Amino acid sequence: MAAAKLRSFLFLITFHFMLLLQVQFSCAQNNVRAGYWAAGSEFPVSSINSTLFTHLFCAFADLNSQTYQVTVSSANQAQFSNFTKTVQQKNPCVRTLLSIGGGISDPSAFASMASQPSSRKSFIDSSIRIARSYGFHGLDLDWEYPSTQTQMTNLGLLLNEWRAAVINESTVTNNSRLLLTAAVFRNSDYYTLNYPIQAVKNGLDWINVMAYDFYGPGWSNVTGPPAALYNPGTQVSGDYGITTWIQSGIPANKIVFGFPFYGYAWRLVNANNNGFFAPTSGAALTPDGSLGYGQILSYISSNNATKVYNSTVVSNYCYSGTTWIGYDDVQSITAKVYYAKGKALLGYFAWHVGADSGWTLSQAAYKTWGS
């Protein structure tokens, strides 16, 4: 009887071990099909279709400008602390990263933090602590953007020290190492400033290249493709940006290509001049012209707007009267995913999942990449 119980016990142990190995193998990921979730979007975490993503970024944690520690506002703590558990209910294999900073954060706080070893340590230690306590699988730096070469140099120091810290933490605790990524400017140079390429290459698992916001009514008085893949005769395109990163020394398989699930609306000066680079008189429909993909579809439907896909630049636009909207639709998203695969990039990401409509763009991207 004792021998039978022992055999039964050993069988159960072996079965569960093999099951664990099977789950781990099925979750093995050699590409990135990612999306950012924005707390300010008011899109519930529980509504995210995580089956369409390998990685999800929770945005944004804050940087305290006095202590240089990573913090989460009280309004976001419940959602952030349950983020991983919530999205893994639909997809146990999805990996989550806590993104720090963002476009509306104070870049001077990041510059000050990165300037001294003690403040860098405060940032690094607190980021690891909060990632572990909230159950994230990694951390994402969104410093927009280092504005001097000294700041770029300090960014390199930060990345090297961050990498060493997560390796040490995983060794001491026997946990899987936290992923480290960063959202970066579309080119390897921020205008005249060069990113610290060696530190980026060594310190990060990959970079998220923000290949969007090329044209918008807040900084462009003509219509334009907000996220053109190509833009003949200019350097303002996703392809040009990716090329600069690869030429700088970042391997293609450490680059993730970014595209937007939103667009921009301009007010045309002349309703009859309604193509790319037509004169405009400012934003339309919203204060800054920004509209999520779902909002754009609603506008098209309600106003019987004319839709155009330009395969030369790989961008969509629509117009009705003097209102003109540049955005990405299924055609351009599909073409960009094909581009990323053709360039042997690690994958793609979208900003942000809450702006999609019925997961139309997310499904197109996921299926286009394939298995």
Could you explain the architecture of this structure?
The chain is an alpha/beta fold and 371 residues long. It has a single domain, classed as Alpha-Beta Barrel (TIM Barrel). Helices cover 37% and strands 23% of the residues. The chain has 11 helices and 17 strands. The protein has helices at residues 2-26, 77-81, 83-87, 107-114, 117-134, 149-173, 197-203, 238-248, 293-303, 330-342, 360-369, and strands at 32-38, 55-63, 70-71, 95-101, 138-142, 179-184, 189-190, 193-194, 206-209, 255-260, 262-268, 280-283, 290-292, 306-310, 315-320, 323-327, 347-351. The chain has an 8-stranded parallel beta barrel, surrounded by 7 helices. Strands 11, 12, 13, 14, 15 and 16 form a 6-stranded antiparallel beta sheet that branches. A hairpin with a 6-residue loop joins strand 2 (55-63) and strand 3 (70-71). Mean pLDDT is 94; it is low at 9-25. Belongs to the glycosyl hydrolase 18 family. Chitinase class V subfamily. Keywords: Glycoprotein, Glycosidase, Hydrolase, Signal. Residues 31-371 form the GH18 domain.
* Structural domain tally: 1
The DSSP helix count reads 11
Give me the CATH fold name: TIM Barrel
Low-confidence stretches: 9-25
Query: CATH homologous superfamily, by name?
Result: Glycosidases
Principal-axis shape: globular
Give the CATH level 1 class.
Alpha Beta
Between the first and last Cα atoms, what is the distance in angstroms? 49 Å
Structural class: alpha/beta
Number of strands: 17
Order of helices and strands: HEEEHHEHHEHEEEHEHEEEEHEEEHEH
Organism: Corchorus olitorius
InterPro entries: Chitinase_II/V-like_cat, Chitinase_insertion_sf, GH, Glyco_hydro18_cat, Glycosyl_Hydrlase_18
Pfam family, one: Glyco_hydro_18
Signal peptide: 1-28
